[in-house]
């Protein structure tokens, strides 16, 4: 429903009342502002009642204004430029504590993730990771940090993990994935603004009969519908910075679940690593002294 929000407005415009047309015009021309306004604020801005705004949302096929607002925000996440994001956030944070507002927002995103993540799907993702012949992890741009985090820990558990990325062009992604096939698993990670290269890489993997797990923010994501195992973690913009707290928490849970299932092998791995770290003084110890 989120992906065709503007299409719905266009198609149903002829049946709108005068007040609803004012709402539609404002949303179309001021998406960056409308996505973060309450029903009361939106109505006041365009000169209609709050109830008119609610009826407008219902007319578009939403359960209510909060439902339409979520669709607006998801749409805005993919459409707003970095400059527009800065302007929106400056307005939202005006006269408010940035530290408190941002951290409270991150806490709320983790709470929402608990509500939207299907535990059966989560467990199925764990089983696919455990049973994969080879694991490829694909995440570009902002999502590359999540891919690196997941890959770092899965490499400690398995010896069959490849992090796909760092390529100057998408042809190189295909070259990194061309050995993927039946029995292999590609984990695609994509959060707004979505990378076309990630989507193309996952489609390429599917064409080669590899299994695909998608980790993304919502059903509006272009990678949400191309696998039968998709994990959702809400991610909303924070100025030009995207909040990845909830996705990182979800990935952390995924790593721990896999690690527990591979407990004996993981213990042996870390016993060896601890000896190596100690021998080569990888980490600073609390009882060490600085020598001149």
Task: Note the topology.
Layout: H1 5-12, H2 18-29, H3 31-34, H4 39-46, H5 50-59, H6 65-79, H7 82-92, H8 98-116, H9 119-131, E1 135-139, H10 144-157, E2 161-164, H11 170-177, E3 185-190, H12 196-207, E4 211-216, E5 230-232, E6 237-238, E7 241-242, H13 245-261, H14 263-279
Parallel strand pairs: 1-2, 1-3, 3-4, 4-5
Antiparallel strand pairs: 6-7
Describe it for me?
The protein is an alpha/beta fold. The chain has two domains: 2-79, Winged helix-like DNA-binding domain superfamily/Winged helix DNA-binding domain (Arc Repressor Mutant, subunit A, Orthogonal Bundle); 112-258, Glucose-6-phosphate isomerase like protein, domain 1 (Rossmann fold, 3-Layer(aba) Sandwich). Helix content is 58%, strand content 10%. The protein has 14 helices and seven strands. Strands 2-1-3-4-5 form a five-stranded parallel β-sheet, with helices on both faces. A two-stranded antiparallel sheet has the order 6-7. Helix 8 packs across helix 13, helix 9 (119-131) crosses helix 13 (245-261) and helix 11 (170-177) packs parallel to helix 12 (196-207). The longest helix is centred in the middle third of the chain and has 19 residues, at 98-116. The radius of gyration is 23 Å and the shape is elongated.
In short:
This protein is α/β, with parallel strands linked by helices.
**Helical proportion?**
55-70%
Question: Which class of the largest domain in CATH terms?
Answer: Alpha Beta
Number of helices, where a helix is a run of at least 4 consecutive DSSP H or I residues: 14
Find the CATH superfamily of the largest domain: Glucose-6-phosphate isomerase like protein, domain 1
As for the CATH topology of the largest domain, it is Rossmann fold
Show unreliable segments: none
Overall mean pLDDT score?
Answer: 85
Q: By helix and strand content, what is the structural category?
A: alpha/beta
């Amino acid at each position: 429903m989120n992906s065709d929000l503007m299409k719905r407005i266009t198609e149903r415009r002829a049946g709108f009342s005068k007040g609803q047309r004012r709402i539609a015009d404002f949303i179309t021309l001021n998406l960056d502002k409308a996505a973060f306004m309450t029903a009361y604020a939106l109505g006041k801005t365009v000169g209609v009642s709050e109830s008119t705004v609610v009826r407008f949302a219902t007319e578009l096929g939403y359960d209510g204004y909060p439902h339409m607002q979520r669709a607006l925000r998801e749409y805005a996440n993919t459409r707003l430029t970095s400059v527009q994001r800065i302007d929106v956030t400056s307005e939202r944070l005006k006269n408010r504590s940035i530290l408190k507002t941002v951290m409270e927002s991150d806490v709320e995103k983790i709470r929402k993730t608990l509500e939207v993540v299907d535990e059966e799907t989560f467990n199925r993702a764990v089983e696919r990771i455990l049973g994969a012949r080879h694991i490829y992890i694909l995440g570009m741009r902002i999502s590359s940090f999540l891919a690196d985090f997941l890959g770092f820990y899965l490499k400690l558990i398995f010896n069959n993990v490849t992090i796909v990325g760092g390529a100057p062009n998408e042809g190189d992604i295909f070259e990194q994935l061309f050995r993927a096939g039946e029995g292999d698993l590609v984990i695609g990670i994509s959060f707004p603004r979505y990378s076309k290269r990630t989507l193309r890489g996952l489609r390429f993997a599917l064409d080669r009969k590899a299994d695909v797990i998608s980790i993304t923010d919502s059903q509006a994501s272009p990678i949400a519908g191309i696998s039968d195992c998709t994990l959702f973690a809400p991610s909303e913009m924070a100025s030009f910075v995207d909040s990845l707290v909830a996705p990182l928490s979800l990935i952390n849970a995924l790593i721990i679940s896999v690690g527990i299932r591979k407990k004996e092998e993981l213990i042996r791995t870390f016993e060896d690593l601890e000896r190596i770290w100690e021998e080569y003084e990888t980490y600073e110890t609390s009882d060490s002294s600085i020598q001149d």
